[in-house]
Amino acid sequence: LFKKSAHFKRPHEILGLVVVILGVMQPVNAQIRHLKCVGHPHPDGSRTRARVVWEVLHKGSGWTCLTLAVTNVALGPVLASGMRFNR
Fold it and tell me: Which one of 1, 41, 70, 74 has the lowest number of neighbouring Cβ atoms within 10 Å?
């Protein structure tokens, strides 16, 4: 159906790969929370520096993944409309 070409050359393909990698890393990142150096917030609400860094990375990568995914969904049909298919 498609012309033969190298993978991950178009923005849609690259964004898709980044979204998949970030999505796969989220559960791994969540398990880091259980390390003793990161831990959970203390009963008084204070957090260790490692915990704050973990929260920023975990939440930041999640929101970045979501933003890139929505962008990629919108970008897909735009790029597909310009593709030529072999018949």
Answer: 1
